[in-house]
## 1
Amino acid sequence: MRPWAALVVLLCGTFLANLDVFIVVVAMPALERDLGADGGQQQLVLAGYQLVYALGLAAGGRLGDALGTLRVFGLGMAVFTGASVVCGVAPTTAVLVVARMVQGAGTALMVPQVYRAARTLFTGAAQRRAYAAIGAVMGLGAIGGQLLGGWLLSADVLGLGWRAVFLVNVPVGVLALTLLPWAAGCPRPVRHGPVRADLPGIGLAAGALGLFVVPLVAGGAGGMVWWGPACLAASVPVGACFLRHERALEARGGSPLVPPRLLRLDGFRRGIALIILINCGLSAFVLMLGLLLQRGLDWSPLATGLGMAPAAVAFAGGSLLAPRLARGAEPRLLVLASLAATAGYAGCAATALGTDPRLLIGAVCAVGAALGLCVTPALSVTLRTVPDAVAGAASGVVSTAQQLGAALGVCVFGFLFFAQVRATADVVGAFAVTTAALTTTSAAAGVLARDLPRAAAPAGLREDVPGSPAPRDLPM
C-alpha cells in the first residue's frame, strides 16, 4: 500500500464531486437554448445529482467498511465516469436528468471512502495533513467549478458547447481508475465476512433524508414549496424510527447503517453540527457570489470564474496551513477561524456596496481563507475519536452532514436573497443583506467550537467490531 498515492487518487473523487455541483450552473442558459430545458427541468439537472448524492452517502460509507475502501471507490468512479459520458452525449433533457442521478449514485460511493482512508491510513500529524488535503481539494472543486465551466463554455472546446462540462470528467475518471491498482500496491485478496446489508436502515435513512432534503432543493430560489412543511415534519418521526431500528439491530449483534455508538461520541456529535454550520455558510456564499458577479455586476461566466479563483486559492491555502497552526489545538483554531469568517462575511457585505471591486475580491479571499482554516480541524475533531471498524459509516455521516448543510444554506439564505431581489430589484443590495446574515453561521460555529476540548470519546468505544476489516486494510 502506498498511503499518500492512494489518497491522491481518492481525492480525484472529492474534486469531481464538488466540481459537478457548481460547474453545471454556468451551463444552464446553453441547456435551455440547445435542449429546450424549462425551469423545472433545469432544477432537476441541478438537484437530481445532489439528491441522490446526499441520500446514498451513509450507505456508501458502510459499504466501504464491508467491502474495502478502494474497491468501493473504484466502483463509484466507474459509475460516475460512465454517467458523465451519457450526460455529455444526452440527446434530451430527460436522458440528462437520469444520467445526472446516476452520477450522484457514483459520487455517494466515492466520497465517504476518502474520509475513511484519511482516518485509517494515517495517524497524528500525517492524518491532519490528509484532512488538510481533503479540505483544499473540496474548495478547489467547489469554487473552481464555475471557473472551469466558464472557460469551457467561452472557449467552446472542440465545438462541444455545454457538453464539455460533463465530458471533462471522463479523462480524470479514467486516470484515477488506471492509477488505482498501482496506488493500492496490488495487495493480495483479502477475505471479509459476509456483507450484511442493513436494508431496512437504508430505506428508513433514505426516507428521512428525502423528506428533509427534497422540499429544500425543490423550493430552489422561489422558497419553500407548498408541500414542503408537511415533508419536513414527517422527516422527524421517520428519523426516530431509523434510530430505534439501528439501536435494536446493534443490540442483536447486527451491522447497522449508522452504528448508534457513533452518536454517543460527544466529539462526533458536536463535530457534525460544526460541519453543518460551516457548509451552510460556504455553499450559500459561493452561490450568491456567483449571482452577484454575473447578475449584479454583469460579469461574463469566464470573468466570474476568474473573480472567484482567488477565493479558491485562499481556501486551499487555509486548508493546507491549518495543521501547522493547530498543532493539536484544533478547537482554539476553529474559534479564531470562525471569528475571521464572521469578519470576512461582514467585509463582503460592506465592500459589495462600494465602487471598487478589488476591495470585494479581497474580502472574498478573507472568507475563503477563514473557511479553509475551519474545514481541516472540523474534520479532525469529528473523526479522531471514531473506531477504525466503523470509520466508513462515520465518513458517510460526515459527508451527509456536508450535503445537508449545503442544502440548508442554499434554501434558507437563497430564499432571503431572492426575496430581497424581488422586493428591490437590487442584486447588489440583496447580496449585502444576505451575506451579513451569513455571519450567524460562522458565529454559531465559533460558539460551538469553544466546548470541543471537553468532547472526548467515552471509554471502550475505540475497540474494533469483531469480524470487521482491520485498520489500514484498504483492499481492492
## 2
Amino acid sequence: MKITYYGQSCFLFEIGENRVLFDPFISPNELASSINVDDIKADYILLSHGHQDHVHDAEQIARNNNSTIIATFEITNWYGAKGLENLHPMNTGGKVTLPFGTVKMVNAVHSSSLPDGTYAGTAAGFVVETENKTFYYAGDTALTYDMKLIPEQFDVDFALLPIGDNFTMDVHDAMIAADFVQVDKVIGMHFDTFPYIKIDKEEVMEVAQMADKELILMEIGQTIEL
C-alpha cells in the first residue's frame, strides 16, 4: 500500500490497482504549490465532511478521472446538483464493499457545511479494511470515546489523526485516540496549513515518543509504503 501526501488532510492511497483519495484541498494551499491537481489520478474520492479545506479540489479531480465520490448523503446530493453522476452516499455507521476493500463511515465530532453554506450532514471518519492493511482515517474530529468501538470491530494497523489543535484534536489528544483505536503507528494531518494550526514539529514528536507511538509527519508530495 502506497500513500502520497498532498497537504492538510489529503492523502492518496494506492491499494492494488485502485487509487483512493481523501479530502482534496490542494490548489488553494500555498504549501502544496508544487502539486498539479490535474496530474492526480483517483478512482475514488472519500470526503470526511464539507468544509472547503477538505473538498475544494474534489469536483475537478472527479471530473478529470470519472472518480466516484463517497461522502454523506447531503454532500453527494450537492455534487449531484453540479452534474456529477458517480456518487455513493453514506451515513454514520454504514459500510460499503468496494473493489479495494470495505469502507465504514464512523463518527467524528466536528461541524460540517459546504463552501456555499449548504448543510453537509454530520462530519465523519472512515475505517478502510483491505486485503493487507486496515486503517482509520479520522477526518476532523475531537477526541471521543466512540473511537473505542473501532478496535472492537477491526484490527487497525495504523491511523491518520489530526494534530493541529484549535479546530481538531491536538497531538496529546491524538495519542490518546491512538490508544483508543489500539494502534502504535500514527500519520499526522491537519497541521501547518493556516496560522491557527501551526505546530512545533519537535514538540509533537517528543509527545509521541513519550506516548510510545510512532508519529509520521509526511512532507507534501512524499510517498511512503506501509
## 3
Amino acid sequence: MVQKSTLLVFLFLIVCCTTLLAQVDSPTNQYTFKKGDYNGIGKWYMGREIAYVMGYQGIGWLERPEREKEEETSKLLKNMNIQPSDVIADIGAGSGYHVFKMAPLAKNGKVYAVDIQQEMINAIKANRNYTEQGNVETVLGSEKSVNLPENTLDKVLMVDVYHEFSFPYEMLLSIKKALKPNGKLFLIEYRGEDNTVPIKRLHKMTEKQAVKELKASGFKLEKNLDNLPWQHCMIFVKG
C-alpha cells in the first residue's frame, strides 16, 4: 500500500513538472506587462510592446487621398500576384481600402474582410462596392481568432495591423489554420529600421522582430520585397 502511494506521488510530480516546463516554453507565456510607451498597451510579446488599436474614428486616415502616393498600394497588389480564383483574407480590413481593390482581381474567388470592430464592418457594408462587386464577405473577428474556415485561404493580407494584435501568437495560429498548405501571408509593416519613416515607433516593425514572432507560430519568411516606399512587404509561408 505504501509502495502504491509512493508511486502515485511520483507520477503526480512528473505530471506537474512536465506541465510547468510546457508553460515556461509556451510562447503565450511570454506575454509580460509593464509600463512602456505612451502609444502602447503595457503588454509585451517577445520583447516588443503591443500598440493600441486604431479605432474606427481613424477611417478618414485610412481613406486619405494621398495614401496611394505614400504607400504605393497598386505596387503592393502586384506583389501579391492575385489570381482570379484566389480566396483572400484582409485581416484588420478597416474600412475596406485594400478589400475593394483586391476584389475585382479575385473576381471568381472571394475576399474576406475581417475586423474586430463592428463599426469597421458597418463601413464596409455601407460602401457601394460591397454589393456591386459581390465577392466580398465581412467577418467579425475576435482578439484571438480570425473566425475563418480551416484550410480555405490562398492569401492573407495584413497591412499595418499586426503590431496592434493583443494576442499575436493566438491570432497567427488562427491564420495558419485558415491558410491552405501552400498559402501565403503578406505582412505589411512600416519599417522599424528606418527612422525617416514618419510613423510612431510602436506602429513600426523591424524584419528581425517580425521573423522572430512569426517563427514562434510556425511561419517562415519566404522573401521581403523592398519595393514599397515606407513599408516592409514580408511574405511568409507555413514553416
## 4
Amino acid sequence: MLGRCISAEWMKLRYSHIWAILVALPVISVLIGCANFYMNQGVLTKEWYSLWSQVGLFYGEFFLPILIAICCAYIWRLEHLNKNWNMILAAPVPSAGIFLAKWIVVGVLLILVQAFFVLLYFIGGKTLGLNAGLPQELPGWLLRGWTAGLTISSVQLARSMRIRSFAVPVGMGLCAIFIGLGMYVARLGLFFPHSLLTVGMGVLSQTGLSCGENPVFWLMNILYIGVINTGAIWRMRKHDRVA
C-alpha cells in the first residue's frame, strides 16, 4: 500500500514545475558562493574548505530550507484544492501511508538535490582553479545535511498538512531559518531542526562534530522525525479536515 501511495505522489510531481526550483536554488547558491570566493581569495586560502564555507553558507543555511518548505507545501497543494481531502480520507488508504509517502518522496528529492549541489560545487571549484583533493568530510556533510533535511521535511509537511495556504508554511519555514541561526550562535544548534542542518553540513564551521556532539546530532534527528511524523499521522486519523 505504501508503494502505491509513493507512486501516486510521483505521478503528481511528474509534470509539475517543482523541478525548476530543485535545479534553480542549488545553481544560485553555487554561483553566489563562487563569486564570493573569487572576490576574496586573498582571505579564503583553504581552497575547497573555503569554497565550501561560501557555497555551503548560502545553500545549507538559506536556500535548502526554503527549497524543503516549498516542496512540502507543493506536495500537499493538491489535497487542499477542490475538496480533495474528502476523497482522500474516504479512500481505503491508511493515513500513515499518505503522510509517509509524501515524506519519502521529499527525501528522495533531497538526495537528488544534494547530488546536484555537490556536482556544482566540484565544477565550480575546478573552474576557479582548485587543484587539491576534495575535503574528506564532504560525504559526512552531505549525509548529515540530508538527515537534517528529513527532519525539516517532517516539520514542514506537518505544517503544510494543517495550513491550506501555500505561502504561510513557506513563510514560517523562512522565520525558522533565522531562529535556527540564533540557536546556533547561542551554542544550542543541536536542539533545533534548522540549526541541525547548519551543524550537520558544516556551513559555518568546517571542523566537524566532536565525539560527544555526533551521537546527540543523530539522536535529535531521530526524535524529531519520530515525534513529528507520529503526531501528524495521529492528527490525520483523529481530526476531521475542512475541505
